[in-house]
Write a structure and sequence with these properties.
Blueprint lengths: L4 E12 L2 E12 L2 E6 L6 H8 L7 E6 L2 E2 L5 H7 E4 L11 H7 L13 H13 L15 H14 L4 E5 L7 H18 L2 E5 L3 H7 L2 E4 L7 E2 L1 H6 L12 E4 L4 E4 L2
Parallel strand pairs: 3-8, 3-9, 6-7, 7-8
Antiparallel strand pairs: 1-2, 1-4, 4-5, 9-10, 11-12
Helix pairs in contact: 3-5, 4-5, 5-6
The structure holds adenosine-5'-triphosphate.
Amino acid sequence: MASKVNISARELHIGYGTQQIANTINFKLNEGQLCGVVGINGIGKSTLLRTMCNLQPALKGEIKIKDKSLDNLTSLEQSKQLSVVLTESIASKNLTVSELIALSRQPYTNWIGSLTEKDKEFIQNSLDIFELNNLKKQKCYELSDGQLQRVLIARAMAQDTAVILLDEPTTHLDLYHKVQILKLLKQLVKEHQKTILFTTHEINLAIQLCDKILLLDGKNNPFGSPSELIEKKYFETLFPSETVIFDTKTGSFKVNK
Ligand SMILES: Nc1ncnc2c1ncn2[C@@H]1O[C@H](COP(=O)(O)OP(=O)(O)OP(=O)(O)O)[C@@H](O)[C@H]1O
C-alpha cells in the first residue's frame, strides 16, 4: 500500500517582504517519516518552519497538508492537522505540566473549553508516552530544559495532528538528552504514523536518525534520505573544509585539525 503524503512544499520561496531568504524548496513527506532541516546559521531554517505553520506568508510556491493547500485551511482545520513547537520561551510557564498539555485539546473542546473523556485520554496517553506522570503537577518554570522540551513535544502529541513541526528541539540539551529527544521523535513517527519535521544543528545525529533530510544550502536545497545526500556529496561543501570536513566513510563531520 502506498504511504500517504502528509506535508509537501513545491517551488517554495521564503523570506520577509521583498527580502528572499531561501528559494525553490521542494519536498514531500509521508506519514511515518522523520525529517531534519539542516543548514548553516541564518540560512532560513526557522523562517521555513514559521512559513510552514502560516505564521508568515510564503513569497511564492505552495505548501500542502495532505491534499489541501495550507492557504485554504481555516485556523481550526490547521490546528487539527498541524502542531508546532517553537523555540520562543512559552508564555504559560506558570501552568502545571498537565495544564499545559491540556491546552493542546483546545481545537477539539466545546466553547466552554471543558475536556471530554476522549480529551483526557489523549492527555494521559501523552503523559505516559513521554514518562511525565511524576512531573505532571509540577509548574513548567520548575522544569529543566530537557524536561520542558519533553513536555512541549507531549503537548504536540496530545494535539493529535498528522504533522508536527519543531524548531531546534535539542538546543541546550546534553548529548544524552539530545539523543533521547530525537529517539522519541523517531518512535512517534514509527509507532503513531506521524510526520515530523524539525530544524537542527545536530547534523551527525540527524544523519543517523532521520528518514529524510532537507539541506538548506542557499542553492539547490537538496532533499532526500541521508545516504542519498551523502552519495551525492551534498554535505561536503556545507562548511569551509579548512575547518570542518565530512567523512563519507563514517557519514559524519569531523574537525579538520
Ligand atoms: N523578522 C525578520 N525580519 C527580517 N529578517 C529576518 C527576520 N527574522 C529572521 N530574519 C533573517 O532571515 C534570515 C534567516 O533567519 P533564520 O532565523 O530563519 O535562520 P536559521 O537558519 O534558523 O538560523 P540559526 O541556525 O542561526 O537559528 C537571517 O538573515 C535573519 O537575519
